[in-house]
Amino acid sequence: MTPKITQTQTDIVCVCDELKELLLEKNRKYGDSALNPMRIFSKASTLEQLKVRMDDKLSRLQNAQSDDDEDPVTDLLGYLVLYKVALTRDKQERASLEQMYGVHCQEAE
Asked: CA–CA separation, 80 vs 20, rounded Å?
């Protein structure tokens, strides 16, 4: 017997699917700039740059500043997903380096 899916579970799936489609569309449109920035002016790490973008979105939410075509909550959620991807990549890279060189690498903040 298949368990009944609740309305909340259905809503979670819909919101996550919408966010996934938005992130994939932006990635197709703008390239991989969030996770692989050009680093022309800023030399900050990818994780640090994502934190700055999230701070900016939080500031806009706090000050109720947003354009009509902008949804800072959705943007913030998107940056949090990208941050999670960057953290995962960072951990994988560190594990690979540790295995290759037999050293312990410091975690990114």
From this structure: 12
Beta strands in the chain (DSSP E): none
pLDDT in tens, 61-90: 888 877 777 888 999 999 999 999 999 999
Q: Rounded to 5 degrees, what angle do the CA atoms 11, 15, 20 make?
A: 145
Amino acid symbol at 31: G
pLDDT classification of 96: cutoffs 50, 70, 90: confident
Label residues 12-43 b or e (16+ Cβ within 10 Å = b): eeeeeeeeeebbeeeeeeeeeebbebeeeeee
d(CA 16, CA 59): 24
**d(C-alpha 75, C-alpha 62), whole Å:** 14
pTM of the model: 0.81
Residues in CB range of 61: below 8 A, 6 or more apart: 72, 73, 76
Residue 19: which pLDDT band, with cuts at 50, 70 and 90? very high
